[in-house]
Amino acid sequence: MGSYEYDVAVVGGGSAGFAAARVLAAGGARLAVIDGSSELGGLCILRGCMPTKALLHAAELRQSIRYAASWGIAASDVKLDLARLFARKDELIAAFASDRRQQLESGNWDLIRAQARFTDPHTIEFSTGGGITAAQVVIATGSEIAVPPIPGLAETGYLWSDTALRLTQLPESLIVLGGGSVGLEFAQFFARLGARVTVVQRSAHVLSQADVDVARELEAALRSEGIEIFTETQILGCALEANQKSVRIQYQGQERNITADEIFLALGRQPFLAGLNLAAAGVAQNAGGLIQANARQQTSAPHIYAAGDCCGPYEIVHLAIQQGEVAARNILGQAAAMDDRLLLSVVFTDPAVATVGLTEITAKQAGTAFVRASYPFNDHGKSMILGAQNGFVKILAAPGTGEILGAACVGPQAGELIHELMVALAQRMSVAALAALPHYHPTLAEIWTYPAEELVAVSKVETPVVRMTSDKMTGSICTDALAPQSPLISEGQR
Length: 494
Hints:
By secondary structure, the chain is an alpha/beta fold. The chain has helices spanning 15-26, 43-46, 49-66, 82-105, 153-156, 161-164, 181-192, 212-224, 278-281, 317-331, 360-366, 381-386, 414-426, 431-436, 449-459, 479-482, and strands spanning 6-11, 31-34, 110-112, 116-120, 123-126, 131-139, 143-145, 173-177, 196-200, 228-230, 233-241, 244-251, 254-260, 262-265, 269-271, 304-306, 344-347, 352-357, 371-376, 392-397, 404-411, 466-468, 475-477. The strands form six sheets. Strands 1, 2, 3, 4, 5, 6 and 16 form a seven-stranded mixed beta sheet that branches. A five-stranded antiparallel beta sheet has the order 17-18-21-20-19, sandwiched between helices.
């Protein structure tokens, strides 16, 4: 690749950058990975997915113990040791981070611990001095919290996802600004540990990009746990009042003042690109500050690629990894492209919220015709046994063919259950094929067969035959019924 010192430079060693580096190294590229963060590991491991899910598990355990009385299991005094709770989280994260650090330090590349800055399209200088040249570059610098210009917010002070992971004392009351996944997960965590929690959401419902029925179901469940939720609000300002922090909002045509011990800021994130000097590299950004990248993860500078939160459009780890891999394969001359047909999303509240493929909103925006059917968990045996009666599952299918277009799950283990429908979408299965698949009873997973059966009748497609063996009551699905109508990815992407 010319006279450059490296074939490729990967800027950022988080999930997207590590994925790109791993594929590039396997392909034989002369490679440098540049990471100037204070600790190796990336957002997901250190301050995102893993620590937050550890905390949510602890809160769920406490909730289960508190509500065990219906089974005759009395727990009169459920004590909370906040220091031990956070220490257990730290132990887990230390193990995860150690593995990633070892992978980065022992990889088949040069690891450079410094902040990077472009001086021209092929030259990167380091905050520690010196620099390198590279024929091609992958930018995977991640994201940081977005702090909106709310009057008085900075002076009042606030928690965010990073600082909340290091608390030594639980606030007795908390105002959460933002009703997205991060805000709601932390809101439920604090509420289940005993804090009085208020959520302030600017849009008409929480999870603003979700279908209304999905969002309303989660709102109702959170309210039943004592979380106060204000939607369709305008945040006017923040202030300190005696020993309390206050948030002034416009709600239903009137101004209201909400007070609490702490404010938790969860109004989104922005790409972390400070100091990178993208202009010198010829890399364009969109109006929201994200790096513009096509389906091949290629930026406006053809030799520079981007992956992960710095380019979006989704802040989801498995997609960041996939983007890193796609960028690397294109650099290696292997045609690859992102395909959001299998877009998967999970919110780890209780009930959890998970979607895959099209939602009703995105289907309507795309002009895609669909039929829908849903089934509630409160009429499903296994979920009733578990005491998890909030929520429902929903399937969208194409009229006529019955091909599954999308699905949603609000309920117990939604993040696990949604993967069955992800596989169905990947194989372009019809609702008839899904309905014919044997499901063990009683399980949570069998709930998917109910809306599928309803859609078989609505979409007027024939149910696949379940053939019985000669002398055993076991069935096998006709392979024709399960065969994909077209490959998931092209031959060039394999």
